[in-house]
Amino acid sequence: MTAVRDAIDSARVALTAAGVDTPRLDAELLLAEALGVDRTRLYLDRDLAVRGPAVRRFQELVRRRAVEREPVAYLLGRKGFRRLELAVDRRVLVPRPETELLVELAVAELPRGARVVDVGTGSGAVALALADERPDLEVAGSDVSADALEVARANGERLGARVRWLRADGLPEGDWDAVVANLPYVEAGAALAPEIARHEPPGALFGGEDGLDVIRAVVDQAAAARVGWIALEHGAGQGAAVRMLLALAGWASVRTERDLAGHERVTVGC
């Protein structure tokens, strides 16, 4: 039997040595998972201890996090996004806090009843958050990956969300008022953290030589379809290039919004 505090401290040391960015938080999340309890109970329940099968389970989770650098979201099988908890695995990217900016902008700016599609939906995070926060919208999520759509559809069914799921390479056919998209935008050959490079699907990450190949294609498709409002997530140094793409494609008003870290993150055309 091991005390909770000792187990956390031991895991924190191992994770720190492995170069994990948030060793204590990760240790707490993994221990709570091994014990089958909420993280807050680790500190509120004085009788809680690590014993029996939970010891082996915790050791294995810490090993996979430290040695294999597996993302915590994959180890837990879930990730929070806005007000939702989503099931995630290696078929989809782990939803990131900066992607919530896409949802914030669409929630604030789209007119009532707008038909909006989340292109490259992955786990369904953006589409499901929009359906949750703006039930007046007609929301669809699309992806070229059948595996990703399986994850998104399962999340939608579990949450009881009114979202249509479509398989398409780029913008699916339809009469869309708005497009939101977190598309692959990493430059070919870019150095990535081990958690990303070893475990997340490369097809959802890399966007060609300059990282903008997939974004270019969707911009062209959306312009041809006369989409009135488009919001695209991109890398911190890609704002100027994406603004130019949207302006040249015909959107009259183009601007880039910054994420909470101050980085240019989402460019909007309308």
Overview of the structural elements:
By secondary structure, the protein is an alpha/beta fold. The protein folds into two domains: 67 residues; 189 residues, Rossmann fold, CATH 3.40.50. Strands 7-6-5-8-9-11-10 form a seven-stranded mixed β-sheet, with helices on both faces. A two-stranded antiparallel ribbon has the order 1-2. A hairpin with a 2-residue loop joins β3 and β4.
Q: What can be said about this structure in brief?
A:
This protein is an alpha/beta fold and 270 residues long. It has helices at residues 4-17, 23-35, 41-44, 53-66, 72-76, 100-109, 125-133, 146-159, 194-199, 213-224, 239-249, and strands at residues 2-3, 49-50, 78-81, 84-87, 115-119, 138-143, 163-167, 178-181, 229-233, 254-258, 264-269.
- Helical content stands at 40-55%
Question: Which of globular, elongated, flat, extended, rod-shaped describes the shape?
Answer: elongated
Largest beta-sheet characterization: 7 strands, mixed
Beta percentage is 15-25%
Q: Count of helices?
A: 11
CATH topology of the largest domain: Rossmann fold
State the order of secondary-structure elements, H for helix, E for strand. Answer: EHHHEHHEEHEHEHEEHHEHEE
Mean pLDDT: 96
Number of β-strand runs: 11
